Automatic annotation (TrEMBL):
Its cofactor is FAD. InterPro entries: FAD-bd_OxRdtase, FAD/NAD-bd_sf, FAD/NAD-binding_dom, FAD/NAD-linked_Rdtase_dimer_sf, Pyr_nucl-diS_OxRdtase_dimer. It comes from Loigolactobacillus binensis. Keywords: FAD, Flavoprotein, Oxidation, Oxidoreductase, Redox-active center. This is FAD-dependent oxidoreductase. Residues 1-304 form the FAD/NAD(P)-binding domain. Belongs to the class-III pyridine nucleotide-disulfide oxidoreductase family. Residues 334-416 form the Pyridine nucleotide-disulphide oxidoreductase dimerisation domain. Pfam families: Pyr_redox_2, Pyr_redox_dim.
Length: 449
C-alpha cells in the first residue's frame, strides 16, 4: 500500500507517525512545500516575549525523524494538482523546478490553512507581515530588533498574544480591531472588555471599532488608513484569521461552503481513498451538532491520529470537538470552550449565561485568587453549551473539565453536583465549578419561564 501525504505540520506528522507505528511496511511518501516540518506556531509569541529562547525549539520532529520511521519525505516539494479518479498527484520539486507525476493507493490531505489576507490596498508591502509559519516567525523575530512601534491588525487570539509579547518587550503597540469585540469567537463582551482593559493597562493603544482600509509605507513607516483615522507605525502585523487551504480539492472532492473539506467521522472525504485532517477540514462541533471551522493544533493532531487509525479499515470514529482553547495574558489565563452566549443565540438556542466571581480556595488560606466565570446553557434542557474563565489563577484545566461536560451533554444540575475533591489547599467544599453550576441552577429557579 502506498500512502501519499500532502502537507506535514501537525496533522501530516501525526498521520505519518501513526501509520508507520502500526503498519511499518506501508510505503509513506510525504510532500511538504516548506523546508521544515512540525513548526509550533504558538512559539512565535513565546519567542518574541522571551519565554522560549530559540525558535528552533518549536519543532518537535525533523524530516530525519520521519525517515527513521520509514517515510520518504520530500520537503520543498509543492503538489500543484491531484486527480482522484486516476489516483495521481502532480508535484514540483522547488529546488530545481522539476515536475513529475506520482500514483497513490491512499491519499491524505493535510494541507492546513493560510492566513486570511484582506483585500486591502498595500497589504503586501514589505513592512506588513502575517503570522502563520516558520518563515513568518523569523521575519517577526528579526524585525522586532529594529522596529519599535508595531501595529497589530486583528484582535483574535493571535493578535492579542502578539500584542502582549511586543508590549512586554519595550515595543509601542497599537491594536486595530474592527467589526467585532476582541476575541469575540471565544468570549462574550464583558470578558472582551476585561481583556481590553488589561491590554490598555500594559500600554497597548487600542483602536476598537476601526476597520483597516489601506496600507502605505515609506522607508521608515507604515501608514494604516482606517474608516476613522490614519495610524502610523514602523511595522504592521495582520492577524485577521485563517482559511482552509483546499485549492487542490476543488472539483475533485466535496467542500463545505467555507472552503473546508467535508469529512465523515472516520476522516474520509467524498472519495473513499482520500482522507483529510487538520486546518483543511471542518470539525464536528458538539455544542451545535454541526460541522464548523475550528483551526486548532489540538484538532489537527487528533484528526491526524484518526486518519492513521482508520486508513486501513474504519476503526475509531471522531467524537467531535468543543474547540477548547486558552491564552496567557499578562500572568492571567483566559480559557474558553464551546459556544459564547452570542454565538449560541445566533445558532437559535434559547440560551442564558450564569456569571460568578469567586475565590478558588478559602480566604483563611495564606493566599487566594478570584476567578471570573461564565457558564452558557440551554434554558429548555439545561444542557451546558459553553464556558469561559479569566483569572490570575491557572484555570486552563477547568476549561477542559467544562469541555468534557459539553462533550457528554451534561446539564447545569450535573455540574453543580458532580463529585469534586475538597482540600483547602485547592478549593472549597463545593469546587468553584460546582458553584458555577449552582449559580446557574439558582438563576433558573428564579427566572421567568
Ligand atoms: C501564531 C499561531 C499560534 C497558534 N497557537 C495555537 C495554540 O496555542 N493552540 C492550538 O491548538 N492551535 C494554535 N494555532 C493553530 C495551529 O497552529 C493550527 O491549527 C495547526 O498548525 C494546523 O495544523 P495542520 O497540520 O492542519 O496545518 P498547517 O499548520 O496549516 O500545515 C499545513 C502544511 O501543509 C503544507 N502544504 C499545503 N499545501 C501544500 C501543497 N499543495 N503541497 C505541499 N505542501 C503543502 C504547508 O506548507 C504546511 O506546512 C496557532 C496558529 C498560529 C498561526
Amino acid at each position: 500500500m502506498k500512502v501519499v501525504i500532502i502537507g506535514c505540520t501537525h496533522a501530516g506528522t501525526s498521520v505519518a507517525r501513526q501509520i508507520l507505528k502500526t503498519h511499518p511496511d506501508t510505503e509513506v511518501a510525504i510532500y511538504e512545500r516548506n523546508n521544515n516540518i512540525s513548526f509550533l506556531s504558538c512559539g512565535i509569541s513565546l519567542y518574541l516575549g522571551g519565554t522560549v529562547k530559540s525558535l528552533a525549539e518549536m519543532f518537535y520532529a525533523t524530516p530525519a525523524d520521519l525517515e527513521k520511521l520509514g517515510a520518504q519525505i520530500h520537503t520543498q516539494h509543492d503538489v500543484y494538482r491531484i486527480d482522484v479518479a486516476q489516483k495521481q498527484i502532480w508535484v514540483e520539486d522547488l529546488n530545481n523546478n522539476r515536475k513529475f507525476v506520482t500514483q497513490y493507493d491512499k491519499l491524505v490531505l493535510t494541507t492546513g490553512s493560510v492566513a486570511v489576507i484582506p483585500p486591502i490596498q498595500g497589504v503586501s508591502l514589505p513592512n506588513v507581515l502575517i503570522c502563520k509559519d516558520y518563515a513568518d516567525a523569523t521575519q517577526i523575530a528579526a524585525t522586532a530588533q529594529t522596529k519599535k512601534h508595531i501595529a497589530i491588525v486583528g484582535g483574535g487570539y493571535i493578535g492579542v498574544e502578539l500584542a502582549e509579547s511586543y508590549s512586554n518587550t519595550e515595543h509601542e503597540v497599537t491594536m486595530i480591531n474592527g467589526l467585532h469585540p476582541l476575541l469575540s469567537h471565544y468570549v462574550d463582551t464583558d470578558f472582551s472588555t476585561a481583556v481590553a482593559a488589561d491590554l490598555t493597562a500594559h500600554g497597548v493603544n487600542l483602536k476598537l471599532n476601526e476597520t483597516a482600509l489601506k496600507f502605505d509605507s515609506d522607508a521608515q513607516h507604515v501608514y494604516i488608513q482606517t474608516d476613522r483615522a490614519e495610524h502610523q507605525a514602523d511595522l504592521a502585523v495582520v492577524c485577521v484569521g485563517f482559511r482552509p487551504q483546499t485549492d487542490l480539492a476543488v472539483g475533485q472532492l466535496q467542500l463545505n461552503a467555507d472552503g473546508s473539506l467535508h469529512v465523515d467521522r472516520y476522516m474520509r472525504t467524498s472519495d473513499p481513498d482520500v482522507y483529510a485532517a487538520g486546518d483543511a477540514v471542518a470539525v464536528h462541533f458538539n455544542p451545535t451538532q454541526e460541522d464548523a471551522y475550528a483551526p486548532l493544533a489540538t484538532n489537527a493532531v487528533r484528526q491526524g491520529l484518526l486518519v492513521g487509525m482508520n486508513i486501513f479499515k474504519p476503526t475509531l470514529a471522531d467524537i467531535g470537538t468543543q474547540a477548547t482553547s486558552a491564552l496567557h495574558l499578562y500572568g492571567k489565563t483566559l480559557a474558553s470552550t464551546g459556544l459564547t452566549l452570542a454565538r449560541a443565540k445566533q445558532h437559535g438556542f434559547d440560551a442564558a449565561v450564569a456569571k460568578l466571581t469567586d475565590n478558588y480556595r478559602p480566604e483563611f488560606m495564606p493566599t487566594t485568587t478570584p476567578i471570573d466565570m461564565r457558564l452558557i446553557y440551554e434554558r429548555k434542557t439545561h444542557r451546558i453549551l459553553g464556558g469561559q474563565l479569566y483569572s490570575a489563577y491557572d484555570v486552563a484545566q477547568s476549561a477542559n473539565l467544562l469541555s468534557v461536560c459539553i462533550q457528554n451533554k451534561n446539564t447545569i444540575e450535573q455540574l453543580a453536583f458532580v463529585d469534586m475533591l475538597f482540600s483547602p489547599y485547592y478549593d472549597r467544599p463545593f469546587n468553584y465549578l460546582n458553584q458555577l453550576g449552582l449559580t446557574a441552577l439558582e438563576q433558573e429557579a428564579t427566572a421567568k419561564p
